[in-house]
Amino acid sequence: MSAAPDPDGVLEGLCRQARELVAELAGPVRRVRLRSGGTVLEVEWHGSAAPAPAPRAEPEPVARPVAEPVAGADRPAVRAPVVGTFYRAPEPGAAPFVAVGDLVRPGQVVGIVEAMKLMNEVTAGQAGRVVELLVEDGKPVEYDQPLIALEPVTGRDG
Prior knowledge:
Elements: H1 7-24, E1 31-36, E2 39-44, E3 67-69, E4 76-79, E5 84-87, E6 103-104, E7 109-115, E8 118-123, E9 128-133, E10 140-141, E11 146-152
Antiparallel strand pairs: 1-2, 3-4, 4-11, 5-7, 5-10, 6-9, 7-8, 9-11
């Protein structure tokens, strides 16, 4: 019978991988989430893009959506959480998460950004109707780049 994995050892390994990953990424990093079995390590920096001194572990990953106005437009946009490659669907050949005209709710997954073989969910920060897809599937994106333009909805809209 094999021994159960040491949770402290798994967490220590995830912390080491997080430090290495952040050191290798170009540009500012806002959030990193690593998972090994049932152990999840999520690190998020607020304010400046400088990393915090030590990562913290959370029992469950918490999506932190980003929705801010698109530059030059009066509408919110879902933005890239990290530098990487944007995908509109969960896997090749699958239906996209959202299409123009779809209503989205806060926290709903609307895409994925792959960064260094890690898939980062992109979630809507507010309710809205998708009015424009700003990045093509499989294209590289920068940190905080607008990906999907939304039109805010009121209670009577949907």
